[in-house]
Amino acid sequence: MYKVIVTDPISASGLKALTEHDAFQVEQRVGLEPEVLAEVICDYDALIVRSQTQVTRDIIQAADRLKVIARAGVGVDNIDIDAATEKGIIVINAPAGNTIAATEHTLAMMLALARNIPQAYGSLTSGKWERKLFKGVELYQKTLGVVGMGRIGTEVAKRAKGFQMNILGYDPFLTEDRAKKLGIIKASLDEIAAQADFITVHTPLTPETRGLINAEYFEKTKKGVRFINCARGGIIDEQALVDAVNSGQVAGAAIDVFEHEPPENPGLTQNPKIIVTPHLGASTTEAQEKVAESVSEEIRDILTSGSVQHAINLPHISATVKQKIKPYLTLSEQMAELLMQIFKKAPKTIKINYYGELFLEDTGLLTRQMIKALLSYYLDSSINIVNVMQVLKAHGLSYSVQKNAAHKGFTNFIELEIGNGEDKATIACTNLSGFGGRIVSVNGYRLDMEPERYLLYIDHMDVPGMIGNVGSVLGKGKINIGSMYVGRETIGGKAVMVLTVDKPVPEAIRSDILRINDLNDVQFAEINIEESVD
Ligand SMILES: NC(=O)C1=CN([C@@H]2O[C@H](COP(=O)(O)OP(=O)(O)OC[C@H]3O[C@@H](n4cnc5c(N)ncnc54)[C@H](O)[C@@H]3O)[C@@H](O)[C@H]2O)C=CC1
Ligand SMILES: O=C(O)CCC(=O)C(=O)O
Question: Residue 76 CA: which ligand 2 atom is closest?
């Protein structure tokens, strides 16, 4: 039974994928104090939050059973991603579920700001009739600067065009071509400052975007510009905004998100020219249903089949790429497990070569699978594909990946080499269409081996009677041989034999095999034959 804890208000109907699944038990414990969450988190496999719960390093360190932290929304700045990654916990979000809600809120804020609607409402409901005081401005033919042309920025731009605004878009990833297709103008931040009547920000909060709009920027803007922030508090420097509004440089602002929530700056929240909402961008029935559905379906898939779609701390791999690399996911891991059990020394260097059609693919997941298998041999079993690169770095190890379009005799071919400065070992695999995965070379010897759970790797000289001698020792030990693969350098030269056996080979039998004349080394290996990540 997987236990899931929900600590922020989440649409109950959106959680059906978990609440109606026999393998899951969902507990809604909204508003837990951080110390209490840190105490109870060790009982859960998954945690679902919105933006209120701060998922700190302390909480994550106490989360020994946790496999997934899910953000029912976009921004993950309330989650310590580094701490989660180090602990091997996948962090996911629901990137698209609240796009429309946040877009519409931005437009609502822009219109309310232009027409002083909140101020007028407050005045009228307090018994006044102040028509002159609340004269507004039109959006028609005004210039809107959109900073951050991702999902929400793009949708805002499309809708603002409906008001016949001229749109300037700034985003490091915005191309001329895309801007043209959207009917907007690609601009720099300074061009937006010089031309825009309204500026709306839609970036994540990162070290680069914190204070992106600051006192210096306000000096460059047109006098009387209006700002909207429905993205993240801190992208616009709050105190600098208050000062710019008070000086008249900025005519007004509409703010949904704050550096601290609830906000602590009365200059911002009680300013007649600044309208505010309490982080309502995503608060629609539809958006909350969609984000809850998205994260609960993904938690179900991750925990039951290992399939991940919206991980923040894993490389993104599209469904098409996943399909192409799927035959290699388990195979590459098995090959790395076998190599470590043959090499039996901590690797200092790791080289991975991808050949053939894999040249064109995103092989990041395969690389992680192999490195995870190599490191797990010596390090503890908490290494997984989420934290593997951190563990590698923490041990001062590095790896290199090369890709080559050459086919090496197979449509696709993966070669793994590990070394410790003195010795090295290599292994390679391919997937034969219709026949499945094969290990096709070990330490340079050609083989055609189907991976099996129990294996014996024997390094020997190619002399008559070798196979019989090994077979007879195994026979005496009542160990059945399933199949045998032999590769040799030259007739009578060095050779390797890999046997698949039906059960583990005890150390005593391994020692007996080692006593056979002309036999250099023998290693027993056990590899995982379960399908790994889907
Ligand atoms: N108020 C609310 O309730 C909600 C707020 N949000 C917030 O809205 C923001 C945008 O969300 P999405 O559009 O879904 O994200 P997104 O990831 O689709 O788009 C963000 C865009 O910002 C761009 N960007 C990053 N650094 C930049 C920089 N220095 N200058 C200019 N552009 C930069 C990226 O290239 C990307 O295109 C996020 O901060 C998210 O957390 C999202 C939903 C609801
Ligand atoms: O869950 C919420 O209400 C906040 C949504 C949000 O800010 C986000 O998705 O980034």
Answer: 10
Residue 93 bridge partners (DSSP): 71
Would you call 57 a catalytic residue per the annotation?
Answer: no
Rounded mean pLDDT, 377-400 = 82
Tokens of 367: 């690389």
Pairing of strands 185-186, 166-170: parallel
Which pLDDT value is given to residue 406?
83
- Mean pLDDT calculated for residue range 281-308: 94
99-276: CATH class: alpha beta
pLDDT in tens, 84-126: 988 989 999 999 999 999 999 999 999 999 999 999 999 999 9
What's the pLDDT tens digit per position in 176-189?
Answer: 999 999 999 999 99
- CATH pick for 454-526 out of 3.30.70.260, 2.40.160.20, 3.30.428.10, 3.40.50.720: 3.30.70.260
For the chain, report the end-to-end CA distance as a whole number of angstroms.
21
Residue 377 has pLDDT above 80, yes or no: yes
Does the active-site annotation cover 208?
no
- For 308-341, what is each residue's pLDDT tens digit? 888 888 766 677 777 888 889 999 999 999 999 9
Fold agreement between 2-97+285-305 and 316-451: no
Amino acid at the residue 238: E
CATH superfamily, region 316-451: D-3-phosphoglycerate dehydrogenase; domain 3 (3.30.1330.90)
| Pocket mutation for ligand 1, best pick of 50, 105, 171 (most atoms within 8 Å of C-beta) | 171
pLDDT tens for each residue of 474-495: 999 999 999 999 998 888 899 9
**In 183-318, where does DSSP find H-type helix?**
189-195, 215-220, 238-246, 266-269, 285-305
444 CB-near residues (< 8 Å, 6+ apart): 426, 489
Q: Is the ipTM of this complex over 0.85?
A: yes
Please report the DSSP string for 152-219 in residue order: HHHHHHHHHHHTT-EEEEE-TT--HHHHHHHT-EE--HHHHHHH-SEEEE-----TTTTTSB-HHHHH
Fold of 2-97+285-305: Rossmann fold (3.40.50)
Collapsed DSSP state (helix, strand, coil) of residue 29: coil
Sheet containing strand 494-501, edge to edge, reads: 481-488, 494-501, 454-461, 519-526
**Cα(489) to centroid of ligand 2, in Å?**
63
CA atoms within 13 A on the CB side of 227: 35
Could you say which of 71, 202, 226, 279 is catalytic? 279
Closest C-alpha among 417, 412, 305 to residue 358: 412
CA pair distance 505, 458, nearest whole angstrom: 13
Question: Which of the following is catalytic: 105, 202, 232, 300?
Answer: 232
Is 279 tagged catalytic? Answer: yes
Does a cis peptide bond (omega within 30 degrees of 0) precede residue 262? yes
What is the secondary structure of 477-502 as a DSSP string?
TT--EEEEEEEESSTTSEEEEEEEES
Look at strands 436-442 and 445-449 and give their pairing.
Answer: antiparallel
